[in-house]
Amino acid sequence: MDFNDFLTGIQLMPQAIKVINNSNITEEEYQQNRKLFQKNREEFFRVINNKADFREQFLYYYTHMACETYTYYKNNHISEEIYFATFQDITLWCKDCKERYGVYGIDEYQWLFRHIEAKIFRLGSLQFERALADCFIRYKGEQINPGDEVIHIHIPNGANLTKEAVEDSFKQAIEFFGSNNLFVCHSWLLYPDLTKLLNEDSNILRFQTYFDLYRIDYSERQAEERIFKAIREDISLYPERTSLQRKAKQYLLAGKRLGLGFGIYKLNR
After folding, report:
1. Same structural domain for residues 111 and 126?
2. pLDDT digits over 176-185, tens only?
3. Containing domain of residue 152, as a range?
4. What band does 269 get if pLDDT is binned at 50, 70 and 90?
5. Rounded CA gap, 194 and 203, in Å?
6. Same domain, 29 and 58
7. How many domains does the chain have?
8. Which of 118, 145, 160 is the last residue of a domain?
């Protein structure tokens, strides 16, 4: 895969491409840290985090390693459509980095390694990740133990959650991974009390109907991060630019919680 073709394929912003092209990272340094990433990912994170321009450097390393990952896709007969869709996550998080920190770079480096290691794929609107269960799950007479393989479902920022789009993603996932896998989702979108904040015809509430809920975490604050873009200890400081922000803020000010729902996809829904 030609590197410029890769950047075009993931629709990376011209300003971000300029940051990459202006980087002073040498080929020798790149190869050294690339090997470190493969050998000891946490040490790689530590080394790059010590750089003054660490966000820009993470953008450089992730785009170049993502381009090299094309070989894995080709050897495993995975389409270019899935390849580019998967790595457009780099573009999404680069945009987020610009909005949050004022630079074109990557701050979510502990998320994007999954893409480089070919553990996660975007199939339509949703992302699907091969992972290991981290707790006991009992479902329809079956018990899933910690360490058993499951497929995690992730919802990218701005994902189309219409009925047609969601069902197409699930169809692709079953074809890609097989129907014998357990598909699980841990997300604020599955928190049951969202019924108090959203209209009946909400795509989010419809999305919840695809899952059997098996656990709720009331302490997790992912919902606040996603709705308000950042978590604040002083709830009164949350913005009210959208109707969901206004409703969620009032809900929280009333002393209530917005938690996390854990669900299993109803394969035979």
Report:
1. no
2. 998 888 899 9
3. 119-269
4. very low
5. 12
6. yes
7. 2
8. 118
